[in-house]
Amino acid sequence: MKICMFGLLTCVLVLFLQHQGVETRHGHGSRLLKETFHPRYEETILSSLPYGNTSTIFNVLAFGAKGDGTTDDTKAFEAAWLAACKLEASTMIVPNGSVFLIKPISFSGRNCESNIIFQLDGKIIAPKRSGSWKSGLLQWLEFRKLNGITICGTGVIDGQGAGWWSKSSGTKPTAVRFYGSSNVTVTGITIQNSQQTHLKFDNCQSVQVFDVTISSPGDSPNTDGIHLQNSQDVTINSTRLACGDDCVSIQTGCSGINIHNVDCGPGHGISIGSLGKHNTKACVSNITVRDTMIHDTENGVRIKTWQGGYGSVQGVTFSNIQVSNVEIPIIIEEYYCDGGKCQNKGSSVDVSDISYQNIKGTYTKTPIRFACSESTPCTDVNLDTIQLQPVAAVVRGVQRKAAVVMGLQPDAAEPLLEQPGKEGWAGCVEQRLENAAGTGCSAG
């Protein structure tokens, strides 16, 4: 956490010096750039070399990037990264006012120092045509095996993914992926129009994401906002997520996840899962989602598992969540499948110690759906202060109030809050049945 804070403070200092107008001349020709330096060198002008042993600032323009939106600048980014990663606490700058066309690239940390800052103030775009990509690619921009990596700034990463969305099959890349990294901070930037998932953390520890905007159309398929897998100690806050799939997707191997002050919608809500596909083990624990707005989505807060899997989901709290125009605000679905009939098998992921507190707002389909497994029933599921109203009833209430104001006779009063019976909530509001089978997951 200290490393993350170091990177963040350094990034703030860089932005402050830019605002003060510290100027330097870099690279070829006479292009004048606003540039920032480590405090020891803030008045230094390094015009003779694109980088040197004394500088910790590496601007991609100094390595030959054109920034015109049409020239392939991938090799310039690779060269700038290679130079920056040799020095601890260095900064690689993608400057404001330029658009950089970048093909798939890996910012690898195998031989890199720690605490590197990737300052993004310009715009990075992907090739539009999927035919210009190699087949089987899993990611576009990858940050791999780094310690203390910070991405900050006011810039944009645009996957230009519309050409991919019409493809019904085949591998589609993630826009930004962190793999095997620790003490990661992502702040300030915008990621939009991803080919598939926008931002993924895989096998990462100590991650902070805040003041980030993620955006793609609500009908763009499989464009998750943030995807977490095999990652621990992750905080996501003060972030706007609008996409065509889950705003946040939490997969197996995740624990210590804290999501708060997030605006989610459109999309499919905030999901744990799907878990246990193809009879696999899944372990998720200690998840908190609080103080969050979810609107114009298919789901609100959801746990989804496949029949035949095993393991556990435990220690999950959803609290202080406002929903608006959501099809189903609260869901536990242990018969999840992506097509066809979901079969009832002899095992499933154990779901226990789940708390829903102070969830309010409007729904368009049904307020709560709990479909727990017959073989492994949900246990210790608690609901407190759940106030969900059908959108139609809210509209009728507004109309009645308007009629009274206008001196008209309103229709007979109707309750604004539906209280469906047990059958209306998929036959399960709270189950406290003992599950004798072990989950195979250690507490975490």
From TrEMBL:
SUPFAM superfamilies noted in UniProt: Pectin lyase-like
Record-linked InterPro entries: Glyco_hydro_28, PbH1, Pectin_lyas_fold, Pectin_lyase_fold/virulence
Major localization listed first in the record, in broad terms: secreted
Keywords noted in UniProt: Cell wall, Cell wall biogenesis/degradation, Glycosidase, Hydrolase, Secreted, Signal
Active site (record annotation): 268
Transmembrane annotation, as ranges: none
Domain of life from the UniProt record: Eukaryota
Signal peptide: 1-24
Location(s) in or outside the cell: Secreted, Cell wall
Molecular function, one GO term: polygalacturonase activity
Annotated GO biological process: carbohydrate metabolic process; cell wall organization
Protein family membership: Belongs to the glycosyl hydrolase 28 family.
Xref: PANTHER family: PTHR31375
Entry protein name: Polygalacturonase
